[in-house]
Amino acid sequence: MAANNRRMSGKKGAQIGSGGKRRRGLEGKGPTPPAEARKGHVKNRLANAKAKQTQRRTTAAKGRGRSSSELVVGRNPVFEALRDGVPATALYVQQFIDNDERVRDALKLAADRGGIHLMEAPRPELDRMTNGLNHQGLVLQVPPYEYAHPEDLPAAAYDEGGEPLIVALDGVTDPRNLGAIVRSVSAFGGHGVVVPERRAAGMTAGAWKSSAGTAARTPVARVTNLTRALEAYKKAGITVVGLAADGEHTVGELAALDGPVVIVIGSEGKGLSRLVGETCDYRVSIPMPGGAESLNAGVAAGIVMYEAASRRARR
Known about the structure:
The protein is of the alpha/beta class and 315 residues long. The chain has helices at 2-9, 21-25, 42-63, 75-83, 101-113, 123-129, 152-159, 175-187, 205-210, 226-235, 274-279, 297-314; strands at residues 70-73, 90-94, 117-121, 138-142, 165-170, 192-196, 220-223, 239-243, 249-250, 261-266, 282-285. A seven-stranded parallel beta sheet has the order 7-6-5-10-8-11-9, sandwiched between helices. Strands 1-4-2-3 form a four-stranded mixed beta sheet. α5 (101-113) links the parallel β2 (90-94) and β3 (117-121). α4 (75-83) runs parallel beside α5 and α8 (175-187) packs parallel to α12. It is globular and about 70 Å long.
C-alpha cells in the first residue's frame, strides 16, 4: 500500500493538503472582458482599425478646411436657425413631443426648405446627442462649414475684373461679430473674410444667423497662421492695412483703400496682436469725436468697408 500511495502522489492535479491554492488562484480576476477589449482578439483588431480609420478621416477633413458638425438645440433656437436660413441636414424631433406652435413652425420650415431629413428619436437618444442639454425635444444638425483657401479670395476678385477687397480678423472670438462682418463685406462688395484656426470665431450657426444669409455667397477662409497669410498677400501685391486706435493715418485719408487691400481688424479689447500689427503696411484709425475708446469689431468693419467701397465707386 505504501508503494501505491507514492505512485498516486506523483500524478498531476491537486494534492491532499494543498490548502486550496488552485481555487484561490482562480479568485479575484473578475468577469471576462468583451472581445473588443481583449488584445490580440480579431474583434479587438477590427475595433482598433476602425478607430484609426475614423481618426484619419477627421484629420483629412480638417486638412481640407472642413469644420465639425454642430447641433442647435431648443425650440426657439432651432426655429430661428431655420427661419434665418442656417444650413441644416437633419431635424431630430422627440417621440411623443408636445406639439406646440414653435414645434409646428419648425417642422413646416424644415419641410418647405427641402433637403432636411426629419428624424424621430426617443428622449434618451436626444439627451445623449446633446450631452444632457435642455433640447426641449428639437435638435437641428448643421453640416460642417467648407472654408475657402486664402488664395481663392484674391483669385476670385481678379477673375471678376476687380481688385481684391478682403477683411482679415485677428482675435475676434464672438461668432456674432464674425457674422456681422461677413454681412458688411457682402454689402460693400468685398471678396471674403480670413480667420485664424485658433483663438478665433468660426462659422457656427450663430455666425450664419448674424450674417443674415450673406454667408452663403461670401467666402470665409481659415488659416493656420494669420501673419504668414498676410505676408503671402503682400508678396502678391496686396496692401495690408491694420485698424488700430493709435494708427498713423485715418481711414478717410488713406489712398491705399482704392487698390487691392486686406483690412485687418483686431478684437475690441486688445486690438491687433504685435506680430500682425508689425506685418501691416499701414495702421489706420477711425476718428471718434464723441469720445468712445473703441468700436465693436462688426461696426468698425462696416465703416472701413463703406469707405473703401465709396473710394472705388468714385474712381
